[in-house]
Specification:
binds beta-D-fucopyranose, 3-stranded mixed beta sheet, 13 helices, TIM Barrel, 8-stranded parallel barrel, alpha/beta
Length: 443
């Protein structure tokens, strides 16, 4: 627990008019009502022994599907401008599934909040596979259906959530669904998701959308030391987790040497990159912490709940001297300033306005001063990036509610609102009141 003098005392700097304050969630993590949708790769994965640490499933989760009115009322009281949620593709594929999002969007709009749907947040319909190119085309068809139904009320769209994490954790390391341990053979899953993103941008625009972005996860990569071997390993990590997903989207090119590793002939990959590089209206960044990276150490490494195999050409090291969240992630607000100014320097005019689509931390308890300190530090760090000239238009806290935190189950609590997973009762935490004040003041 932070002490009182760790609490924010300085006045918060002012944000420009029209700056979008919001909160984020995702379908699989909150909706429940698993019987009212088709299965996703996450249902199959979760059913396997030892996959989810507390042995839980997302079958009920926060039961948001049935309690969305209560949750939208929480959004309204919070006073946020926008709500980022995700649309579950397997639900949309099921009879009546799209009706749920119709009702949800109506409710969100009626509360005076802008709905910001993400079209894919990792819950791929069972039977589909990102290693298959065809999944990208199927995604675009699904996107057209959703846009056709919700496009009259939804202005701002997000194609994908964190294709980097979905590739790394789901296809390379096997700690998330679909549970594949392909290491570098997972790269086609990255390419096909990026292609799906580009096709979705086109499908959304064809349906009349004019405010389209993606939510990519990024963080600065810090070399473990000045040693050339550590620097080289850190550069490689940066390429893999940051540049491989930002470069093609923002510049229409893969970093040098990466395009050759992707499926298809050079001509085919180049044609795909034309689609992937479709200019965006804005760019979403999910930020949690930097990563400190060094040369491989020839042994497995435990990192943030994940075991990294010895054969990777890098090793992840601890960032020392920082408070840690319950997840063990270091709290480094200035990493956000560094990340955003670095992006501006690297991509220049090709970087459209940025929105922070996720930022948050896992802590227990209702009197969550550590969360307030975390968010306060990061909002200030964001403001510093804006003062340094980065065009940032919004900030979304992950998350509105405690929820099903993937392979960690319900053990990690990221919500501004506490959820009792036995009674499903919602209780706003101290951070909820803090964020409500910030939003009011920010305007
Ligand atoms: C991000 C995910 C989100 C949530 C947070 C803690 O990587 O997009 O669903 O799990 O981490």
């Amino acid at each position: 627990m932070a002490t009182d003098d760790a609490m924010p005392a300085r006045p918060m700097p002012r944000f420009p008019d029209g700056f979008l304050w919001g909160v984020s969630t995702s379908a699989h993590q909150i909706e429940g009502a698993a019987g009212l949708r088709g299965p996703s790769v996450w249902d199959a994965f979760t059913a396997g022994p030892g996959r989810v640490k507390d042995g839980s499933t997302a079958d009920v989760a926060c039961d948001h599907y049935h309690r969305y009115r209560e949750d939208v009322a929480l959004l309204a009281d919070l006073g946020v401008d926008a709500y980022r949620f995700s649309v579950s593709w397997p639900r949309v594929d099921s009879p009546g599934g799209l009706d749920f999002y119709d009702r949800l969007v109506d409710e969100v709009c009626a509360a005076g909040v802008r709905p910001v749907p993400t079209l894919f947040h990792w819950d791929l319909p069972a039977g589909l596979d990102w290693l298959e190119r065809d999944t990208a085309a199927r995604f675009a068809e699904y996107v057209s259906v959703v846009a056709g139904r919700l496009g009259d009320r939804v202005g701002k769209w997000i194609t994908l959530n964190e294709p980097a994490e979905h590739t790394l954790l789901g296809h390379a390391l096997g700690v998330h669904a679909p549970g594949r341990k392909l290491l570098f053979d997972a790269l086609p899953a990255a390419h096909h998701q990026l292609l799906a993103h580009g096709l979705a941008v086109r499908a959304l625009r064809a349906a009349g959308a004019t405010d389209v972005g993606i939510a990519n996860s990024h963080g600065p990569t810090w070399p473990a030391s000045g040693d050339p071997a550590d620097r080289e390993a850190a550069e490689f990590y940066d390429l893999l987790l940051n540049r491989m997903f930002a470069d093609p989207v923002l510049t229409g090119r893969y970093p040098e040497g990466v395009g050759e590793l992707m499926p298809g002939s050079p001509g085919e990959v180049a044609a795909d990159l034309e689609i992937i590089g479709e200019p965006l209206d804005w760019y979403g960044v999910n930020y949690y912490a930097p990563t400190r990276v060094g040369a491989p150490q020839g042994a497995e490494i435990e990192f943030g709940g994940v075991t990294l195999p010895a054969e990777l050409p890098f090793s992840v090291r601890e960032i020392e001297g920082r408070p840690l969240t319950d997840f063990g992630w270091p709290v480094v607000p200035e990493g956000l300033t560094e990340l955003l100014t670095g992006f501006r320097d690297r991509y220049g005019d090709r970087l459209p306005p940025v929105v922070i689509t996720e930022n948050g931390c896992s802590y227990e308890g209702l009197d969550d001063r550590d969360r307030i300190a975390y968010l306060d530090g990061h909002v200030r760090a964001l403001h510093r990036a804006m003062e340094a000239g980065v065009d940032v238009r919004g900030y979304f806290v992950w998350s509105l509610l405690d929820n099903f935190e993937w392979a960690e189950g319900y053990a990690r609590r990221f919500g501004l609102v506490h959820v009792d997973f036995t009674t499903l009762e919602r209780t706003p935490k101290a951070s909820y009141g803090w964020f409500r004040d910030l939003v009011r003041h920010g305007r």
